[in-house]
Amino acid sequence: MKTVSRAYDSYSQARAAVDAVEKAGIPSKDVSIVANKYVSAEYADVDDVNKAAAGAGIGGAVGAGAGLLAGLGLLAIPGLGPVVAAGWLASTAAVAAGGAAAGGIVGALVDAGTDKEHAEVYSESVRRGATLVTARVNDADASRVEAILANYRPIDPVARGADYRKEGWTTFDPKAPAYRPNQTEIDRMRANWPG
C-alpha cells in the first residue's frame, strides 16, 4: 500500500478530488479529508461542513450521499483546532495526538509514508485554511490516483513551504494556537496562492 496526499486551497477542490477518487474505485475507507472548520465554513458551497460543525461526530451520518463525505464530523487536532474531517487519517491523527510525541496530523502522515517535510507543510496548510485529501492505495494504483488528485490543482508543498519560510515559519507546531483567519486574510491567501 502507498499513501498519496495532496492539499487544496479550497474545500470545493478537495471535495471534487475525493469524489473523483471514489468514482475511480478507491474505497471510502481508504480515503480521508481534513478541512479547517473556520475557513471552510466561510464558503457557501460547503453545506456538509456546516452540517458536520453542527454536531455530527466522526462516523456520524451527515448528508444524503454515500461515501466518505457522508461521514464528515467535527473534531479537534492539536495545532489545527477544530477541523471537519472524515476517514482513517483523521481518526489516526486524533488518537495519536493524545499520546505520541510525534503524533497528531504530522505523525499520522509520516507513519503512513508521507515525506516529513511535506507532512509539515500539509499540516500547516490545513491550519491556515487548506483541505487535505489522503488516499491509501495499492502500489499499482498510486500513479493513477496521483493523476486524479493533480486534476484538482493541489498546492505544491515545496513552493508553499518556501512561502511559509519567507514569513518566518520553520515547522508545524502542534502546540500553536488554532489559526482562525479573518475574511481579509482568507481573501489574501486565496489571491496569492493559486490552487
Account of the protein in words:
The protein is an alpha+beta fold. It has one domain (2-192). It has nine helices and five strands; from the N terminus they run E-H-E-H-H-E-E-H-H-H-E-H-H-H. Residues 41-46, 55-65 and 96-102 have low confidence and may be disordered.
Summarize the structure.
This is General stress protein 17M-like domain-containing protein. This protein is α+β, with helices and mostly antiparallel strands and 195 residues long.
* Integer tally of domains: 1
Main β sheet profile: 5 strands, antiparallel
Structural class: alpha+beta
- Tally of individual helices: 9
SSE order, one letter for each helix or strand: EHEHHEEHHHEHHH
Uncertain residue ranges: 41-46, 55-65, 96-102
Multimeric state:
single chain
Q: Overall 3D geometry?
A: globular
Number of strands: 5
Helicity, as a percent range: 40-55%
Strand order of the largest sheet: 1-5-2-4-3
Q: Radius of gyration in whole Å, from Cα?
A: 15 Å
The mean pLDDT is: 76
Beta-strand residue percentage: 15-25%
Distance between the termini: 28 Å
